[in-house]
Fold this protein.
Amino acid sequence: MNVITTLNDKRREKQWNFERKMLRHIDLKKMERSIKEWVRPIIPFQFQAYPFLLDQSIDMTIDAFLLGTEYGRFGIDGESAIDSRKRCNEELTMLSHSLCDTLSGWNGESLRSHY
């Protein structure tokens, strides 16, 4: 019996394999230290009292890393970093706003105005 697969299934499988390969390069302990270092001055108490904020921050950092690896691989074909950044700008903006909104909710004020 033959298994029917679609082009979208093959693309998604290829994407998953690529992401798995890239995730092997992440040092979660180093990432956790960096996030704590960056966030502690902004929301010191909440970050200590609600450790799930770290999980949300790590998730978004991993998403940004995968976005960078996905778009960065086009540099192999000669695309400039500026052109690659333009293509992923919408997704990157969405990720940064999402992280900012998450942290703003715990800080009690909008952080977007600070950046």
Observations:
- Residues 23-36+51-108 form one domain.
- The radius of gyration is 18 Å.
- Residues 81-107 form the longest helix (27 residues).
